[in-house]
Write a structure and sequence with these properties.
Blueprint lengths: L3 E6 L4 E6 L5 H17 L6 E6 L4 E4 L1 H4 L4 H10 L3 E4 L7 E3 L3 E9 L6 H18 L4 E3 L13 E3 L3 E11 L2 E9 L4 H14 L11 H4 L5 H13 L1
Parallel strand pairs: 2-3, 4-5
Antiparallel strand pairs: 1-2, 3-7, 4-6, 7-11, 8-9, 9-10, 10-11
Helix pairs in contact: 3-5, 4-7
């Protein structure tokens, strides 16, 4: 965690960590689990932690995908497009992101027996409310054909997927991770098309949403501040 800096201590129950340098992709994903375990054990005293980062180019795939027959070809496709393949600690399907994206983790100290559907819905609505306050037409729900499909994706206008979320639980805490793209999407569409084809998974490239299309005047700092405030207040 040495590359993580500018942690801003807030009155309990929240801690915001703005990671100032990208770690190697697998290390960045593993850092999410380190925070999850720290919150669960109490070594991190805050009830909730939000981590915000601009990651290195990564295609994060699930452990389930790593057991698919086309996984080796999917890894090779990611590397050809300049993305490092890595295994995500949460569920879901392949996600591509780079330094132009905002990746965030939200770790909450709570009973791991909490219904994961309820946790997804609660967090998803929190994100939607924060984006709507910024003026976006954000909605909770899956867009047909989206990458890494999920009932609790955050979409724009009911047309494109803006944020996908995934989670992991340990005794005493839960982790929610998400990604929002800010720049052009051509690079992500190209790599996800090949990766999903290798894994035998269908998707519609037209459903990949980005802030560059929805509201290019809305800066990354504003979105980061809105998400941090929504989860730690």
């Amino acid at each position: 965690m040495t590359a993580i800096a500018d942690a801003r201590l807030l009155p309990a129950p929240g801690l915001v960590i703005r990671q100032t340098a990208a770690l190697p992709p697998q290390d960045d994903l593993d850092a999410s689990v380190d925070l999850l375990r720290g919150v669960a054990s109490g070594s991190i005293p805050e009830q909730r932690v939000v981590r915000l980062l601009a990651p290195a180019p990564t295609v994060a795939m699930s452990r389930r995908e790593s057991r698919m027959p086309g996984y080796a070809d999917a890894r090779a496709a990611a590397l050809r497009h300049g993305f490092t393949p890595a295994i995500r600690p949460t569920g879901g399907r392949a996600v591509a992101y780079d330094e132009s994206c905002l990746v965030f983790d939200v770790i909450s100290r709570e009973d791991a027996d909490l219904d994961p559907t309820h946790f997804f819905a609660r967090a998803g609505n929190t994100i939607v409310d924060a984006l709507c306050e910024l003026g976006l037409d954000a909605r909770l729900g899956e867009v047909a054909g989206e990458y890494c499909p999920g009932e609790f994706s955050i979409n724009a206008r009911g047309v494109v997927k803006l944020i996908g979320t995934s989670q992991r639980a340990v005794r005493g805490a839960r982790l929610l991770s998400g990604m929002l793209a800010f720049g052009p999407v051509d690079r992500f569409v190209a790599v996800l098309t090949e990766v999903n084809a290798a894994l035998g998974l269908d998707w519609d490239p037209a459903t990949f949403g980005t802030m560059d299309t929805e509201d290019p005047s809305l800066g990354r700092d504003s979105v980061e501040a809105a998400l941090a405030a929504a989860f730690v207040s």
